[in-house]
């Protein structure tokens, strides 16, 4: 077996030119062939790539999709994000556990199935959903589970199951992101200009980054173009890991050519020859169709050497599949991951446009932004700038899910009100709306006339709706669980702070806190936001802070009066002890003995 393992790893490493920056690809391929990454495999990978085994071990331990111990031949990942739990994910977990005879994190005795949970898989519009060996099964019910397990255990093709369908759920298309497009149109118009003129066109459009931060695209491109380096790189961030976000999935299914052409225009503008699409691991089922689309682009002369007949204009795109880490949506963490490392955010400055991938100037934009670039060069910056608001030009793709009759993806002009959105998705009785996913903020009816725009309610695209019967604060707690689990652990304020937030919020929700403890909770939120190294810690307290502001009465209803409330419930603790020891509990308020021998 060691000889066979050695041969497999040598072959895989050679496939990637024994390049240590391709460690992620090598590890994924080895994991796929051998089912896990043992200490032997880690050592052999390190030897073949010429790096220390500690670097391989460090990277492997960081990502959710890598296992150090043997897994089942089939791996089922059940999505347990908030929207999924609103739609019955907990009951689905119970059904799988009962049918398989194991719990989450375990493998069946026959080695056929491992059952795991996933934080989010980008399918909140068709929840609850699971991934089986990377294949998505959607809109599941507990009664579907026996048939699914039977098919898995009998070796049937998973993609032939009736539940193996990913709907686009494109509810409303628009003129920019999801309108008709002829491959190469934007590129052919861009190459008639100089790189400087392309940037001028982007300035005229007022296009801003669509990942949430809203940084002016033209400024970012201009800085990258003028930064000195041996090479320049273009990266598309397709790692939309924010729970409740799935818009990029729809673009990549519906209009990937817009993305490719936007990246090619970027390469022409900044002088890059290599581009990468960092595709979230949960979207691996899209990879085949994307590779075919890229191959078609090459046949059309839109990628490769001498693009569109321009001598020396050489550029190509490869897809880098990720391995499950929310933090890699942050651009510097993404670059670390692309280089074969754990996805820990870098200290900045320098920024990626100055020193990014392989320490060279690197342009990172998300899927939606590259689509916007293609439209700007296709129709002109002035055309683009006529859409939207004064400070938010163009349109925005929204991933809408939760308690609404029409979940899905909607392309809307910036400036649309929340009230109008709720009307469109048939959720006018909404108790609350989470704007921007867990890292965003929660608003109530008094703010439904506010607008989706950078100057009012900015969002990367996630809109989660909570109906009138939902316990909003319990869902905020679940958001907190997500952040505590996804923290990279690099800095203490985030690593420790997110755990303390959960502990303190639980005390409030269980009625074991006073106003004093609520004030301390708010102070803790402030410390985490101020002291954390990257955006995860900066935004992790948002669910708590926004609901305290918007729904103070929900917190007030759970607080105890006075300055002190004992967090230990003596009767509850005694009851648990008596149950464990087989004794009978008497209420201590009666004056009788608390326990007696049974």
Task: Write a concise synopsis of the structure shown.
It is an enzyme of class 1 (oxidoreductase). The protein has 598 residues and is an alpha/beta fold.
Within the CATH hierarchy, at the fold level, what is the topology of the largest domain?
Rossmann fold
Domains counted in the coordinates: how many? 6
The radius of gyration is 26 Å
- Gap between N and C termini, in Å? 58 Å
Tally the helices: 24
List unreliable stretches of 5+ residues.
588-598
Assign an overall shape.
globular
Order of the strands making up the biggest sheet: 5-11-10-14-12-13
Q: Could you explain how this protein is built, in words?
A:
- GO terms for molecular function: 4 iron, 4 sulfur cluster binding; DNA binding; FMN binding; hydrogen dehydrogenase activity; metal ion binding; NADH dehydrogenase (ubiquinone) activity.
- It holds the Pfam family Complex1_51K.
- Keywords: 4Fe-4S, Homeobox, Iron, Iron-sulfur, Metal-binding, Oxidoreductase.
- Its EC number is 1.12.1.2.
- Residues 473-518 form the NADH-ubiquinone oxidoreductase 51kDa subunit iron-sulphur binding domain.
- The structure is a single chain.
- The chain has 598 residues and is an alpha/beta fold.
- It has six domains: 2-62; 74-160, Glutaredoxin; 170-385, Rossmann fold, CATH 3.40.50.11540; 395-466, Ubiquitin-like (UB roll) (Roll), CATH 3.10.20.600; 472-556, NADH-ubiquinone oxidoreductase 51kDa subunit, iron-sulphur binding domain (de novo design (two linked rop proteins)), CATH 1.20.1440.230; 568-598, no CATH class.
- 42% of the residues lie in helices and 12% in strands.
- It is built from 24 helices and 16 strands.
- The protein has helices at residues 2-15, 23-34, 39-49, 53-62, 82-86, 89-100, 145-153, 185-190, 195-205, 217-226, 247-254, 256-270, 287-299, 331-338, 367-379, 381-385, 418-424, 472-486, 492-509, 515-531, 535-539, 542-550, 552-556, 570-581; strands at 74-79, 113-118, 130-132, 135-137, 170-172, 233-238, 274-279, 316-321, 362-366, 395-402, 408-413, 432-435, 441-443, 462-466, 584-585, 595-596.
- The strands form four sheets. A six-stranded mixed β-sheet has the order 5-11-10-14-12-13. The chain has a four-stranded mixed β-sheet with strand order 2-1-3-4, with helices on one face. A four-stranded parallel β-sheet has the order 8-7-6-9, with helices on both faces.
- α9 (195-205) packs antiparallel against α10 (217-226), α12 (256-270) crosses α15 and α19 (492-509) packs antiparallel against α20 (515-531).
- The longest helix has 18 residues, at 492-509.
- The radius of gyration is 26 Å and the shape is globular.
- The N and C termini lie far apart (58 Å).
- The model is unreliable at 588-598 (pLDDT under 50).
């Amino acid at each position: 077996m060691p000889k066979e393992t050695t041969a497999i790893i040598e072959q895989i490493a050679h496939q990637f030119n024994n390049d240590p920056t391709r460690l992620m690809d090598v590890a994924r391929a080895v994991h796929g062939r051998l089912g896990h990454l043992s200490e032997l495999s880690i050592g052999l990978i390190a030897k073949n790539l010429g790096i220390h085994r500690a670097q391989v071990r460090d990277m492997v331990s960081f990502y959710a999709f890598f296992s150090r111990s043997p897994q089942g031949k089939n791996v089922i990942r059940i999505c347990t994000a908030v929207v999924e739990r609103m739609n019955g994910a907990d009951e689905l977990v119970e059904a799988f556990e009962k049918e398989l005879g194991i719990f989450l994190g375990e493998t069946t005795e026959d080695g056929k199935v491992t059952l795991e949970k996933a934080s989010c898989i980008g399918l909140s519009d068709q929840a609850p959903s699971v991934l089986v060996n990377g294949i998505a099964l959607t809109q599941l019910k507990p009664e579907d589970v026996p048939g699914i397990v039977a098919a898995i255990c009998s070796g049937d093709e998973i993609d032939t199951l009736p539940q193996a369908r990913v709907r686009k759920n494109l509810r409303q298309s628009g003129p920019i992101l999801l309108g008709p497009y002829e491959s190469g149109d934007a590129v052919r118009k861009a190459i008639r200009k100089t790189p400087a003129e392309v940037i001028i066109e982007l300035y005229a459009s007022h296009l801003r980054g669509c990942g949430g931060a809203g940084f002016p695209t033209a400024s970012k491109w201009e800085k990258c173009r003028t930064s000195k380096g041996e090479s320049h790189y273009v990266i598309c961030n397709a790692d939309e890991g924010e729970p409740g976000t799935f818009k990029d999935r729809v673009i990549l299914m519906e209009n990937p050519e817009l993305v490719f052409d936007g990246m090619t225009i970027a390469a022409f503008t900044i002088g890059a020859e290599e581009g990468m699409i960092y595709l979230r691991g949960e979207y691996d089922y899209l990879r085949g169709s994307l590779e075919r689309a890229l191959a078609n682009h090459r046949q059309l002369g839109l990628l490769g050497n001498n693009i569109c007949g321009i001598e020396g204009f050489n550029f190509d795109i490869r897809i880098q599949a990720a391995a499950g880490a929310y933090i890699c949506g942050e651009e510097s963490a993404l670059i670390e991951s692309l280089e074969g490392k754990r996805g820990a955010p870098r200290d900045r400055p320098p920024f990626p446009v100055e020193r990014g991938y392989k320490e060279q100037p690197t342009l990172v934009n998300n899927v939606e932004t590259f689509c916007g670039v293609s439209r700007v060069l296709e129709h002109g910056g002035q055309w683009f700038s006529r859409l939207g608001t004064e400070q938010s030009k163009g349109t925005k793709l929204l991933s809408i899910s939760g308690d609404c009759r029409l979940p899905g993806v909607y392309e809307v002009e910036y400036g649309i009100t929340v009230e109008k959105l709720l009307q469109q998705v048939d959720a006018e009785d909404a108790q609350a709306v989470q704007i921007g996913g867990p890292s965003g903020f929660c608003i109530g009816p008094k703010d439904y006339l506010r607008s989706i725009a950078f100057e009012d309610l900015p969002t990367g695209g996630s809109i989660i709706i909570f109906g009138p019967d939902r316990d909003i604060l319990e869902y905020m707690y679940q958001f907190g669980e997500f952040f505590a689990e996804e923290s990279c652990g690099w800095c203490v304020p985030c690593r420790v702070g997110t755990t303390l937030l959960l502990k303190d919020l639980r005390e409030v929700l269980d009625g074991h806190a006073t106003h004093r403890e609520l004030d301390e909770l708010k102070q803790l939120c402030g410390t985490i936001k101020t002291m954390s190294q990257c955006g995860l810690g900066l935004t992790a307290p948002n669910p708590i802070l926004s609901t305290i502001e918007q729904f103070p009465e929900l917190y007030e209803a759970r607080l105890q009066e006075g300055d002190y409330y004992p967090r230990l419930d003596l009767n509850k603790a005694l009851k648990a002890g008596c149950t464990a020891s087989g004794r009978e509990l008497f209420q201590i308020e009666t004056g009788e003995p608390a326990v007696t021998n049974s």
